[in-house]
Input
Amino acid sequence: MSAQAPVRRITAPQIRARKGGEPIVSLTSYHAHTAAIVDKYADFILVGDSLGMVMHGMDSTVGVPLDLMIMHGKAVVRGTQRALIVVDMPFGTYEESPQEAFRNAAKIMKETACGAVKLEGGARMAETIRFLSERGIPVMAHIGLTPQSVNTMGGFKVQGRDEAAWATHIDDAVAVAEAGAFALVVEGVVEELADRITAAIDIPTIGIGASKNCDGQILVLEDMLGLNPRVPKFVKIYGDLGPAIERAVSAYAEEVKDRSFPTSDNVYR
Ligand code: KIV
Output
């Protein structure tokens, strides 16, 4: 009998090498069981700080603490074997200095065993991205609509509607790519700007509400499963888990109320 070869995880350099190649498939996941399903199809899984809103009922991602990211990161790593796991650095854990960012990114990587971290920001984060990348921490960058800046943006607003702002976004993309980011999430920007960003840099762009021509796509799992009541307009709903859960819960409640619910009596006889 031959022993089964262990599954090798996809690495950040392998994602980096997919620029202009086969589109990169990615989704968020926050817990072991959904991650195990996503693992079969995704090249990387993002433990996004969107979990604050999607799982914990927060109004924005600003309040997400580092320990919560680490807890969910551990669960997703446990549930998966193949996909690269990327964990978001939450607001307030990396902006102050490259040293602060390194300390917290290293903590995330040591405690979760993930393969990379993601942080938000363009040119202003380039020095930090270089600092981390040169010290063994693969960084995915994130520009366009950056949810951690909701309070300075004045809401979750699509970026680049005004063509005058395009050069700044493209400069941001070039800055993070040159600083050593292995991939770039481009969120909530008009399609033509996303296409120009993709053409301007030599690392893969991962679109979310951006353009089908990005080098890959990401969606929040609960959004595409129909589980999030506050889904962004651009999201295609591939499942109807919200209504399915409601049907199941109401059937259970009915059975409990009319005493037709199977008890241990009839199950174990
Ligand atoms: O937190 C998150 O889920 C994200 C994705 C939306 C890209 O950053």
Summary: The chain has two domains: 12-238, 242-269. Residues 242-269 form one domain. Residues 28, 46, 48-50, 88, 142, 185, 187, 208, 218, 220 surround 3-methyl-2-oxobutanoic acid (CB under 6 Å). The CA atoms of residues 166 and 224 lie 29 Å apart.
